[in-house]
Amino acid sequence: MPHSIGQAPSNSAQVCSSVLSGFDRFVARRGIDPVWLDQHFAVSAKTVLPGRRIPLANVCEALFQTSRLLNDGSIGLDYGLEFEPRSLGMFGYLALSSHTVSEALLNMQRFFGDHQQRSALRVIRGPKLTTVEYAIDDPGIRNRRQDAELSLVVIRNILAHAEGGALPLLGMEFVHEVSTSPRHYEDALGCRIRFGCRANRLLLDNADLDRRMTTRDPYLLSLTAASFNEAGSLPQQETIRQRVADSIVSLLPEGEPTLVKVAEMIDVAAWTLRRRLCQEGVNFTTLVDDIRRTAAECHLEEAKLSMLEIAQVLGYAESSGLSRAFTRWHGVSPRAWRNLRGQRPTKTH
């Protein structure tokens, strides 16, 4: 029998129900009675409504158990390929009405916590490559693979509205291991796909970030942004992780970021910041480490900077600091990791 998650805890992470717009019709075409979704996961035409929230755990389990029931490991991908970004409601319109690809990404990052709680969407821009990283921070949610595929593909669908045709992706990476032929993913998305990685992320060429959105609408953008701002959306503890992450990224080139420095940057007392991070289950040191890891991988894949330059960008005084950290993350030195991918820096020191 399919798994039923029952009643979600009252304090469970919530997400706008619009992420499952049309999912009942999607499963019906594959022979599943939509009543099953309602009975097991409280997902139905009555609950998937604009502006309504449902437990994020329900969404993840509905996707995961559908995948198991159909013995199809790419349900998240396939549903995502059909997903119309406007179905996301206000969050979708916020991104689509942005002026450029870059603005769309930054708007999604800024308001993602309002759309989906205890989750993060982080945009990291390097010299030539931009990474869009997605993660659920709620430790109580286990079956995330189909949600990760759906989320990244929906972001890809939004960016497909850029002028000049669909935005070419340089790559897409997932934390989970592959369960379906990688060729299916690569044919569907037109880019390199990797599994078993340290983060769920999209890789974009910075040259495409200034492309204008064909759906841009300054008036609609102002309305949606104002709606998010006026709502006060979520309690501050729901968005504190993203605020801290953004501050860490800004502080890294200056050296080792500390909680005190970040607290000053976002105008919060250090003890208050420590308490709020603890409430959200976020460890400051681990967050700094994760951000450095992701940024290091991004810079090494671009093959533009030397090891010393990458180390300095990430706040290490010497390249040996980067080497020790990278070996701890991957079991190999950053130079060996770069060479394994056929990359060479354009200059050395």
- Separation of the first and last Cα atoms: 61 Å
The total of helices stands at 16
For the biggest sheet, the summary is:
5 strands, mixed
SSE series:
EHHEHHHHEEHEHEEHHHHHHHH
Provide the domain count. Answer: 2
Number of strands: 7
Shape: globular
β content, as a range?
Answer: 5-15%
Structural class: alpha+beta
Task: Provide mean pLDDT, rounded.
Answer: 85
Task: List key phrases describing it.
349 residues, alpha+beta, Arc Repressor Mutant, subunit A, 2 domains, 5-stranded mixed β-sheet, two-stranded antiparallel ribbon, 16 helices, 49% helix, globular
What does this protein look like?
The chain is of the alpha+beta class and about 350 residues long. It folds into two domains: about 55-210, no CATH class; about 230-340, Homeodomain-like (Arc Repressor Mutant, subunit A, Orthogonal Bundle). The protein is built from 16 helices and seven strands. The strands form two sheets. The protein has a five-stranded mixed beta sheet, with helices on both faces. A two-stranded antiparallel ribbon has the order 1-2. The longest helix has 19 residues, at about 285-300. The radius of gyration is 20 Å and the shape is globular. The chain starts with 13 loop residues before the first strand and ends in a 9-residue tail after the last helix. Residues about 235-240 and about 345-349 have low confidence and may be disordered.
